[in-house]
Amino acid sequence: MTVQDWTPHIAAIADRFNREYRGEAIALPEEVESMPIFRDRVSGQLQEKVTSPFWKLAQPQKNQRCLDIGCGVGFLIYNWRDWNAYYFGQDVSKVACDAMNARAPQLNSKLFKGVKLEAAHQLQYDADQFDYVVSTGVSCYSSIDYWSQVLSETKRVLKPGGVFIFDVLDPDAPLAESWAILETYSGTEVFLESLEDWKKLIQSEGGKLVKTQPGELFQLYKVTF
Fold this sequence. Notes:
The protein is an alpha/beta fold. The protein has a domain at 52-173 and 190-224: 3-Layer(aba) Sandwich (Rossmann fold), CATH 3.40.50. The protein has helices at 7-21, 30-33, 36-43, 45-50, 54-57, 74-77, 80-83, 94-108, 144-157, 176-186, 195-204; strands at 65-69, 86-91, 112-117, 130-135, 158-169, 208-214, 218-224. A seven-stranded mixed β-sheet has the order 3-2-1-4-5-7-6, with helices on both faces. Helix 9 packs across helix 11. The protein starts with 6 loop residues before the first helix and ends with a strand.
């Protein structure tokens, strides 16, 4: 596919998360609201199940240049300031980007290097620029074909020896199907790609899967190129 082919797909993702970050209620069918996973979301219990602790697989180090793809408001909620790593972000949600660019410099203007409003496959950075790239909670909203472009671009911007930490949805996880239904009704299609296909993709892009960490819904991967 060409870059242009992804535009409507990316716009739909951006629209959903713009509404979510603005706190707008999303009307769901009664049968969806009756699902246990919906009640978990309302109570806040679901958030812990879908959050991937990427720092446990590879913690950003002092003075490393780090890129967060699909960052949301990550600099505001994770321990980036304690890690003393230089933080660059990128997201398709204008609401998230605006919030980060307004508030993050007040927390630490030295470490925070800004957030760009761009899709995951459009990394407008020089080659070999980053020591560490992370992307969590993002890959499940796009196909393997799209992510081949993301991996290719990530490989380009990573320094030799750099690491890429990202998570993938485990389609065999007990909660996967219910979560996919909930997300679809919330405005974003979920792609239930097999873990084997993800591993084949990593290999096809010249990547090496160094370490994995399973979660209730997502598996974290540590990849080097």
